[in-house]
Amino acid sequence: MWSQARFAASRLSRSRRLFSSAIPGPCIVHKRGADILHDPWFNKDTGFPLTERDRLGLRGLLPPRVISFEQQYARFMESYRSLEKNTKGQPDSIAALAKWRILNRLHDRNETLYYRVLIDNIKDFAPTIYTPTVGLVCQNYSGLFRRPRGMYFSAKDKGEMMSMIYNWPAQQVDMIVLTDGSRILGLGDLGVQGIGIPIGKLDMYVAAAGINPQRILPVMLDVGTNNQRLLEDRLYLGLRQPRLEGEEYLSIVDEFMEAVFTRWPKAIVQFEDFQMKWAFETLERYRKRFCMFNDDIQGTAGVALAGLLGTVRAQGRSLADFPNQKIVVVGAGSAGLGVLSMAVQAVARMTGKAETAARNFFLLDKDGLVTKERKNLDPAAAPFAKDPGQIVGLREGASLLEVVKKVKPDVLLGLSGVGGVFSEEVLKALHESDSSKPAIFAMSNPTMNAECTAADAFKHAGENIVFASGSPFENVNLGNGKVGHVNQANNMYLFPGIGLGASISGARFITDGMLQAAAECLASYMTDEEIQKGILYPSIDS
Ligand SMILES: NC(=O)C1=CN([C@@H]2O[C@H](COP(=O)(O)OP(=O)(O)OC[C@H]3O[C@@H](n4cnc5c(N)ncnc54)[C@H](O)[C@@H]3O)[C@@H](O)[C@H]2O)C=CC1
Ligand SMILES: CC(=O)C(=O)O
Ligand SMILES: [Mg+2]
């Protein structure tokens, strides 16, 4: 079991790792003078000691006083705290963007200080650099853009990518997060503006897995957008054309993958926020050729499975009881289907019966309960479609309320991207479920797209629930000193470890077995005491 001592040891080794890889021993800077001050990888601002100022041609380019790293750190945190105070009472989006701006400016100026600040305050800053604020940043990216970060490959670069990849200044890249911007969180197609997601994900790699920030690369593959508002926006920074489709689309992704693995054969590519059809197709196309994975399908599934196993324990049942859990999954997209596939594999392993492994799982999409009677049934959803004979009292397309009333599930898990679909009626119906401790996973992002809020879940489904959401909510005060614990069921608990594990083991491919091991490992961190309090995942700052 995970003890305090191990926590402390792991934090220590993580920070050592960060410093040993982020600031490699004999770090040779090939730049001089002002070029160094304008390079966030090497810039120390006023922190350059006098000897370095002489050696690097910086004398006279900085005010004379040398400010230590610790003083710079304290000064930044002071500015941040005063900004926090000054934006209190302002609309949430204004305050959130102000916090993002101050962090982003530091990121653009001095990465060493930025990552130190981020790692030490990850719990406070994750909602800014990651969900929910990163969603707002993507929505407004063309207006917020000041300095480029990462690489942009567009449909106009066809035939050029092999040479373009050598424009990236780092000799070595370990982790790439790639998006085509087609399904950014629950916000839909944001085209080139989706670059904010790879940037935020890679910040988590540095903060949580100690990956060297000079060896990460956020990438936007701009194949156009079908977002009319963006196409009409004269300040939009991406290609103003409809998305490429079919073979034209795939040839762009193929060319990118070939270019990346030619220059960096040991890199790992994480596919992120691709619309469902391309998420599945690219995973199948590349997973046996390159070291890659799809975070929305596979990372999310691992985190959800860890939470589902924790839920069984929270109900006071043995893990062997997992196959008997009745689970309703709302959302048949890349994330929902990824979760179901992994949960079904887990049940099949436990029972040895693959044919009946999906028996207790129910899948709904925007047209309601998915059954074998569904016209144009998506092949990816077919393994989870119910046989009409199996669901007495329910029909094809039954509403969520009907399903919850009839099935009386142990778990209601949302990956629909639709805010509020776990309505008051649905939550009250769950209150009547058979389960000793029903669980609600409102996993869609950002906050406004969550299937329900934490407060509504505890209010309508009762205090005896387990609650998790994709974006953070505050714990809920239930009165009489009782607290409704809010978990953050987000793939951020797994992807940094998947990338780090694949990288340091030199894995050539990322297999289902590795993802399953990651999920089980995450679940095993939790003590019985925590699980009894409804805590399913470790605290973010650990
Ligand atoms: N917490 C986490 O770690 C993660 C959360 N997500 C979130 O999950 C959401 C969905 O992501 P994807 O599966 O990739 O999207 P997707 O677009 O592939 O799938 C969305 C699914 O929801 C269904 N849906 C839409 N309206 C519905 C309604 N009213 N009732 C029931 N189902 C409805 C659609 O039919 C579709 O099957 C997004 O908001 C995303 O942010 C995704 C990955 C990880
Ligand atoms: C967390 C995440 O990957 C998503 O919402 O898409
Ligand atoms: Mg995602």
From TrEMBL:
<dbReference type="InterPro" id="IPR036291">
    <property type="entry name" value="NAD(P)-bd_dom_sf"/>
</dbReference>
<feature type="domain" description="Malic enzyme NAD-binding">
    <location>
        <begin position="297"/>
        <end position="542"/>
    </location>
</feature>
<feature type="active site" description="Proton acceptor">
    <location>
        <position position="201"/>
    </location>
</feature>
<comment type="similarity">
    <text>Belongs to the malic enzymes family.</text>
</comment>
<dbReference type="GO" id="GO:0046872">
    <property type="term" value="F:metal ion binding"/>
</dbReference>
<feature type="domain" description="Malic enzyme N-terminal">
    <location>
        <begin position="107"/>
        <end position="287"/>
    </location>
</feature>
<feature type="binding site">
    <location>
        <position position="445"/>
    </location>
    <ligand>
        <name>(S)-malate</name>
    </ligand>
</feature>
<dbReference type="InterPro" id="IPR001891">
    <property type="entry name" value="Malic_OxRdtase"/>
</dbReference>
<dbReference type="Pfam" id="PF00390">
    <property type="entry name" value="malic"/>
</dbReference>
<feature type="binding site">
    <location>
        <position position="273"/>
    </location>
    <ligand>
        <name>a divalent metal cation</name>
    </ligand>
</feature>
<dbReference type="InterPro" id="IPR012301">
    <property type="entry name" value="Malic_N_dom"/>
</dbReference>
<dbReference type="GO" id="GO:0004471">
    <property type="term" value="F:malate dehydrogenase (decarboxylating) (NAD+) activity"/>
</dbReference>
<dbReference type="InterPro" id="IPR037062">
    <property type="entry name" value="Malic_N_dom_sf"/>
</dbReference>
<keyword id="KW-0479">Metal-binding</keyword>
<protein>
    <recommendedName>
        <fullName>Malic enzyme</fullName>
    </recommendedName>
</protein>
<dbReference type="Pfam" id="PF03949">
    <property type="entry name" value="Malic_M"/>
</dbReference>
<dbReference type="GO" id="GO:0006108">
    <property type="term" value="P:malate metabolic process"/>
</dbReference>
<feature type="binding site">
    <location>
        <position position="296"/>
    </location>
    <ligand>
        <name>a divalent metal cation</name>
    </ligand>
</feature>
<dbReference type="GO" id="GO:0051287">
    <property type="term" value="F:NAD binding"/>
</dbReference>
<feature type="binding site">
    <location>
        <position position="272"/>
    </location>
    <ligand>
        <name>a divalent metal cation</name>
    </ligand>
</feature>
<dbReference type="InterPro" id="IPR012302">
    <property type="entry name" value="Malic_NAD-bd"/>
</dbReference>
<dbReference type="GO" id="GO:0005739">
    <property type="term" value="C:mitochondrion"/>
</dbReference>
<feature type="active site" description="Proton donor">
    <location>
        <position position="130"/>
    </location>
</feature>
<dbReference type="InterPro" id="IPR046346">
    <property type="entry name" value="Aminoacid_DH-like_N_sf"/>
</dbReference>
<dbReference type="InterPro" id="IPR015884">
    <property type="entry name" value="Malic_enzyme_CS"/>
</dbReference>
<feature type="binding site">
    <location>
        <position position="183"/>
    </location>
    <ligand>
        <name>(S)-malate</name>
    </ligand>
</feature>
<keyword id="KW-0560">Oxidoreductase</keyword>
<feature type="binding site">
    <location>
        <position position="490"/>
    </location>
    <ligand>
        <name>(S)-malate</name>
    </ligand>
</feature>
